[in-house]
From TrEMBL, chain A:
It is found in: Cytoplasm, Cytosol. Belongs to the eIF-2B gamma/epsilon subunits family. One of its GO terms (molecular function) is translation initiation factor activity. GO terms for biological process: central nervous system development; cytoplasmic translational initiation. It comes from the Eukaryota. Pfam families: LbH_EIF2B, NTP_transferase. This is Translation initiation factor eIF2B subunit gamma. GO terms for cellular component: cytosol; eukaryotic translation initiation factor 2B complex. Keywords: Acetylation, Cytoplasm, Initiation factor, Phosphoprotein, Protein biosynthesis.
TrEMBL record, chain B:
Its main location: cytoplasm. Keywords: Cytoplasm, Initiation factor, Protein biosynthesis. Residues 15-41, 54-68, 102-131 have a biased composition (Basic and acidic residues). Belongs to the eIF-2B alpha/beta/delta subunits family. It comes from Carassius auratus. Acts as a component of the translation initiation factor 2B (eIF2B) complex, which catalyzes the exchange of GDP for GTP on eukaryotic initiation factor 2 (eIF2) gamma subunit. Its guanine nucleotide exchange factor activity is repressed when bound to eIF2 complex phosphorylated on the alpha subunit, thereby limiting the amount of methionyl-initiator methionine tRNA available to the ribosome and consequently global translation is repressed. It holds the Pfam family IF-2B. It is found in: Cytoplasm, Cytosol. SUPFAM superfamilies: NagB/RpiA/CoA transferase-like (SSF100950). Component of the translation initiation factor 2B (eIF2B) complex which is a heterodecamer of two sets of five different subunits: alpha, beta, gamma, delta and epsilon. Subunits alpha, beta and delta comprise a regulatory subcomplex and subunits epsilon and gamma comprise a catalytic subcomplex. Within the complex, the hexameric regulatory complex resides at the center, with the two heterodimeric catalytic subcomplexes bound on opposite sides. Residues 1-154 are annotated as: Disordered. GO terms for molecular function: guanyl-nucleotide exchange factor activity; translation initiation factor activity. Residues 42-53 have a biased composition (Basic residues). This is Translation initiation factor eIF2B subunit delta.
Length: 453, 534
């Protein structure tokens, strides 16, 4: 077997707590499908037959009971539960399943929605015998108004600085603005080897990584690494140009160096078969070099290589903020050939459902309702004379007569009272909006969800 | 006739005759296939007069042999090119319905026909053979039994404009679960019989990501071939053998199967996949032949672990003998030819020539090197880097400056991709240019080539069998402008990126091999000796 897929679905959705305090992030409906369905579909389309899913107990239950997931996903899901309280990072989770990992792995995050041709990422991994191969995409500006956001969107999260070489494939440098004190520091060794480097900001990390098996072994030995994206990836990118790796000094004085060397040796995992000599011979005889202008051989003789595939076109979203969630809901229904109105929904003839809306199953839509550019989840009851525009209605919601909902997100099992006028609001899970209420640009959540000051 | 007889008998007794009829139909279908092949052969015969009878001779007895060996799952690879592996049962479906009507022409008549022809030909065989031989350029072969005369069918990769051959290939690949790579872009008409692939459509597009049908190390190898990461005849062979070692390591014999037969069958789809990524080189072909022979020679009683270990050792010894030791032997001979004060011209990046020059430098010979390079590959830069890193004084020119620089040159060292049976040297495109101009300036041309690259093919021009590389490689951006960017929209424009060309033996003064220094025309002798050894 060549690659094993690992799906990380234990995240809490810390950046959209309003949506996720009741529903775990992997089960949030996007386009009337649970969020976890999208990466699973991506893996299935490419030909994976088995996926290791790391998640919480709640999601595991849903995976086995949810109709959509059971019927649509034909792969075998090997679900590993971890305690939510344990607060495990992604690297901790990999350490946890170390026994199951027998080959190189493809780590995917549960909030990734993309139509990338996965073979582009994996081909880089295969052809160059890379230690790490990841996917990034150009960030699309979000155009929809986000409920509950007062004023203009601030500069947003901290930027990521990504340095690639001339070909645009080799990853030379990666740092987050938060880690940099005053300026961007580039090591001379990198500049000497790759004098032309393109530094890009405005790239979205898709959290899709191909990792060599030796990296998992390295994680087992180095328990201090908790997060793949936050610690492991920058470490690997830095270590490409580390001196100790390239020149294998046998004797070191201090113990610290010795320990470091052990770690490095684990990381290199020279395939300790005698066949390494053959590969070396083939590379020597080959007249190919990945760079030119200096006297070094291909890859500068380095054994650790990191590659990135940057998607120029196509769709790539990470649903980890409210804005992304809304954007994804907008874009995703266009992808799939599902009928916009589920056959099991009951839609009255005198209602007006726009062509860019989707209605889930077991819905009940009464007369003289108008639904435009909206996603309506399953088991929702919408009474008469309701006007819904540009909104996302999740499952089990009840909307009484005469409501006007615009640009809002209504979470599971909420109840909107009669005649309410809701604009650009987020109604939390299970909340009730009283009749004749007029809310604009608010986040309506229960008092127990409010932060303690 | 036979059919009508069958039917008459049928009217008397139904039960037993039905089986017979079925058998007849099966036989007739087989005959039908033979018949259409026969028809094709007759057409060919009309074109090539003197070979007509030979083919007929060999055709029927060989087809009988083929049919007999159909039940056996594998064939020993004694018949040359591996392309001739097709199982007759698998001939295209379109042929059989057409053929089913033909058998009425009666197989008894056919057989009698053939027998008469065979007898007459056997009588006049020795005479015909000599005539045939003298018409070819090489020395007459001493005994026909040493070189098996085989029916050479055209390999698939030079029949791209023949829809029947393409269909056959598609069927074969489908059966082996190997994706078919489609051709790209407009092909210059002279070369429309060759494949032209694009690097933007890798062969891995259509296979599932955790590959099941093909071993992962073979997929990796194919990718490295198609992207040019492993390039150069020796590198490709070594990488291929390395991948085969991995395959053998991970192989486990299924129950009720013999390792010697099953492993060979397992290797066939891998080889198809690799040739879809990039056409196989002559050295790779020889290596594959060697491996297949070794596998089939494994005795049945041998235990799996022991067999695997033996095969790994065989591969190691093959690489050691034919590549590593051979290059050492060749350097030893070549260094004798390098004298102090020499100006040596090399072309492109040949691993063997670079090795020779580095060794000569270590042995304190004083010489300088002129590296000639050509677009689009610009491999000379890599050769230049290696030589300069060693400390050798080098000059770098493009091939357009060849006649300017040649008066300074005292010797030309060329590498080869393959040496053909008629003494022609197949090498990177541009080599024949260099040899031609060197001849005009009376500069000696020495070709360095290991014996495992000797090939039984015969070719006198570069058109018949070649490789077309990605045409987009010719597109270059200068001063921010890319003129050829939309070459596909211009209907009358074709981009041609040839990879190989053949140099006639008159331009080559010496071939340095691990067997010694031989003239170009002695290549068939070496081949004959090799065959006798095996």
């Amino acid at each position: 077997m060549e690659l094993q897929a690992v799906l990380m679905a234990a995240g809490g959705g810390s950046r959209m707590m309003d949506l996720t305090y009741n529903t775990p992030k992997p089960l949030l409906p996007v386009g009337n499908r649970p969020l976890i369905w999208y990466p699973l579909n991506l893996l299935e389309k490419v030909g994976f037959e088995e996926v290791i899913v790391i998640t919480t107990k709640e999601v595991q239950k849903a995976l086995s009971t949810d109709q959509r997931l059971k019927t649509d996903v034909k792969m075998r899901l090997d679900v590993v539960c971890i305690q939510e309280e344990a607060d495990m990072g992604t690297a901790d989770a990999l350490r946890h399943i170390q026994q199951k990992i027998k080959t190189d792995i493809l780590v995917v995050s549960c909030d990734l929605i993309t139509d990338v041709a996965l073979h582009e990422v994996v081909d880089l991994f295969r052809a160059h015998s890379a230690t790490l191969s990841m996917l990034m995409s150009k960030v699309h500006e979000f155009t929809e108004t986000v409920p509950g956001q007062k004023g203009k969107k601030k500069a947003g999260e901290q930027r990521d600085f990504v340095g690639v070489d001339v070909t645009g494939k080799r990853l030379l440098f990666m740092a987050n603005e938060a880690d940099l004190d005053e300026g961007l520091v580039l090591r001379k060794s990198i500049m000497r080897k790759h004098p032309r480097m393109l530094i890009k900001t405005g790239l979205l990390d898709a959290h899709l990584y191909c990792l060599k098996r030796s990296v998992v072994d390295f994680l087992v030995h180095n328990k201090s690494v908790t997060s793949i994206r936050g610690e492991l990836v920058p470490y690997l990118v830095r270590k490409q140009f580390s001196k100790t790796l390239n020149s294998q000094n046998a004797t070191e004085d201090s113990e610290r160096n010795q320990k470091q060397q052990d770690a490095h040796h684990n990381l290199e995992l020279l395939s300790t078969s005698k066949d390494e000599a053959l590969l070396q011979l083939a590379r020597e005889r080959s007249c190919w070099n990945d760079h030119r202008g200096d006297m070094s051989e291909a890859y500068h003789g380095g054994k650790l290589r990191c590659y990135v595939h940057i998607m120029e076109e196509g769709m790539c979203y990470r649903v980890n903020t409210l804005a992304a969630y809304i954007e994804a809901n907008r874009v995703v229904p266009k992808l799939f050939e599902d009928p916009p109105i589920h056959p099991a929904a009951v839609v009255s003839e005198r209602s007006l459902v726009g062509s860019d809306s989707i209605i889930g199953q077991l819905c009940h839509i009464s007369d003289r309702t108008s639904i435009k550019r909206s996603n309506v989840g399953t088991s929702t009851i919408i009474k008469e004379k309701v006007k819904i525009t540009n909104s996302i209605i999740m499952n089990g919601v009840t909307i009484e007569e005469g409501c006007n909902i615009q640009g809002s997100v209504i979470c599971n099992n909420a109840v909107i009272g009669r005649g309410a006028d809701i604009k650009y609001c987020l109604v939390g899970s299970g909340q009730r909006v009283e009749p004749e209420a007029e809310r604009t640009n608010e986040v309506i959540v229960g008092s127990d969800q409010l932060m303690e000051i | 006739m036979a059919d009508s007889v069958g039917r008459q008998v049928d009217s008397i007794n139904h039960a037993t005759e039905e089986d017979e009829k079925k058998q007849e139909i099966i036989r007739a279908k087989g005959e039908g296939k033979e018949l259409t092949k026969e028809e094709k052969q007759r057409l060919r015969k009309e074109k090539k007069q003197h070979k007509k009878n030979k083919k007929d001779d060999r055709g029927p007895p060989e087809k009988e042999k083929e049919k007999a060996s159909v039940p056996a799952p594998s064939k020993p690879a004694t018949q040359s090119p591996a392309h001739k592996a097709p199982v007759p049962v698998n001939a295209s479906a379109s042929e059989s319905p057409v053929a089913a009507e033909k058998p009425a022409k009666s197989k008894a008549e056919l057989r009698a026909d053939r027998r008469a022809r065979q007898d007459s030909e056997r009588a006049s065989k020795p005479g015909k053979k000599e005539v045939g031989q003298q018409s070819t350029s090489s020395k007459p072969k001493a005994t026909p039994s040493e070189l098996q005369p085989v029916v050479k069918r055209l390999p698939e990769h030079v029949q791209v404009d023949d829809p029947a051959a393409l269909k056959k290939l598609a069927k074969k690949l489908e059966r082996q679960q190997v994706p078919l790579r489609s051709d790209y872009g407009y092909k210059v008409s002279l070369f429309s019989h060759l494949h032209q692939y694009s690097r933007k459509n890798p062969p891995t597009q259509q296979i599932s990501i955790p590959v099941t049908a093909i071993h992962p190390s073979i997929v990796r190898l194919g990718l490295q071939y198609s992207q040019g990461i492993i390039a150069g005849s020796n590198a490709r062979s070594v990488a291929l053998l390395h991948a085969f070692k991995q395959v053998i390591q991970d192989y486990s014999t299924p129950p009720n199967e013999e390792l010697s037969r099953d492993l060979v069958n397992k290797l066939s789809p891998y080889i198809s996949f690799l040739s879809q990524c990039r056409p196989l080189s002559a050295s790779m072909g020889n290596a594959i032949k060697y491996i297949k022979k070794e596998i089939s020679n494994i005795p049945n009683q041998c235990k799996e672990e022991e067999a695997k270990r033996r095969l790994q050792e065989c591969i190691d010894s093959y690489i050691n003998e034919k590549i590593i030791l051979a290059s050492q032997a060749i350097s030893k001979y070549a260094i004798e030819k390098i004298s102090d004060g020499d100006v040596i011209l090399v072309y492109g990046c040949s691993s063997l020539v670079n090795h020779i020059l580095c060794e000569a430098f270590e042995k304190q010979r004083k010489f300088r090197v002129i590296v000639v390079d050509s677009r689009p590959r610009l491999e000379g830069r890599e050769a230049l880097r290696r030589l300069v890193k060693k400390g050798i004084r080098c000059t770098y020119v493009l091939i357009s400056a060849l006649s300017y620089i040649l008066p300074e040159v005292s010797k030309v060292f060329l590498g080869a991709h393959a040496l053909l049976a008629n003494g022609y040297v197949m090498s990177r495109v541009g080599t024949s240019q260099i040899a031609l101009v060197a001849k005009a300036y009376n500069v000696p041309v020495l070709v360095c080539c290991e014996t495992y690259k000797f090939c039984e093919r015969v070719q006198t021009d570069s058109f018949v069998s070649n490789e077309l590389d990605d045409p987009d490689d010719l597109i270059v951006t200068r001063n921010g402008k890319t003129h050829l960017e939309n070459w596909q929209t211009v209907k009358s424009l074709g981009l041609l990126n040839l990879v190989y060309d053949v140099t006639p033996p008159d331009f080559v003064d010496l071939v340095i091999t691990d067997l010694g220094m031989i003239p170009c025309t002695s290549v068939p002798v070496v081949l004959r000796v090799k065959n006798v050894d095996q």
